[in-house]
């Protein structure tokens, strides 16, 4: 098989699966690992893919910003599934922080249905309103400037309150997740709050449905760190999960 033909097939695999591993390509095409590496290098130069440790990923598109109301009505099944996975990371009596956004709304509903006693810190008015009537939940709403279109609080007052708090676990709901670009979101003011939620926690949990992986957004929250827990739904492709795992990132579905 000529290199151009092989590279065309590799590109088809990338488009279909979002990622390919070097070992799988060696097995599929019956060539040496050096040959595959040369193929991937040439394809990267032609901007057809992005090489990472253990293989390559599709070049991530910029994920368009969508208003909260519309986000809440999209991918409901995926967010519900994701939330059910995320609550397995919570123990009765935990002190946790919960981000804002549509995924956080599904997570809050799951917390309400499955726990009797929690302390919850949030800057999301949606999360607060879902959990406020639970008789055994202790809720700290970190208020400040109000962002109406995201139904969440931000600014120095919010940050100063969070500076006085420490939690066991933070649950962050970003707009995009990518090996090269890290964990990203759109609103600079809310990103400052999200970064603080990461700082005040013993462990960090990133909640993202499958549509958010290998995408880009405007503001970087943090790098992809192996010690963080990444939680998604069952729609995430196995090839992508395998390549993330080879780069030290475990995705829980």
Label this structure with key terms.
253 residues; alpha/beta; seven-stranded parallel β-sheet; three-stranded antiparallel β-sheet
Give the helices and strands, then pairings.
Blueprint: H1 3-17, E1 19-21, H2 22-29, H3 33-45, E2 50-52, E3 55-57, E4 61-62, H4 68-72, H5 76-86, E5 95-98, H6 102-114, E6 118-122, H7 125-131, E7 137-141, E8 145-147, E9 152-154, H8 156-163, E10 167-172, E11 176-178, E12 182-185, H9 188-199, E13 201-207, E14 215-216, E15 219-222, E16 229-231, H10 238-246, E17 251-252
Helix pairs in contact: 2-3, 5-6, 6-7, 8-9
Task: Give a quick precis of the structure.
This protein is of the alpha/beta class and about 250 residues long. Helices cover about 40% and strands about 25% of the residues. Strand 2 (about 50) and strand 3 (about 55) form a beta hairpin.
What would you note in describing this structure?
This protein is of the alpha/beta class and 253 residues long. 40% of the residues lie in helices and 25% in strands. The chain has ten helices and 17 strands. The protein has helices spanning 3-17, 22-29, 33-45, 68-72, 76-86, 102-114, 125-131, 156-163, 188-199, 238-246, and strands at 19-21, 50-52, 55-57, 61-62, 95-98, 118-122, 137-141, 145-147, 152-154, 167-172, 176-178, 182-185, 201-207, 215-216, 219-222, 229-231, 251-252. The strands form five sheets. It has a seven-stranded parallel beta sheet, with helices on both faces. Helix 5 (76-86) packs across helix 6. The two termini are 37 Å apart.
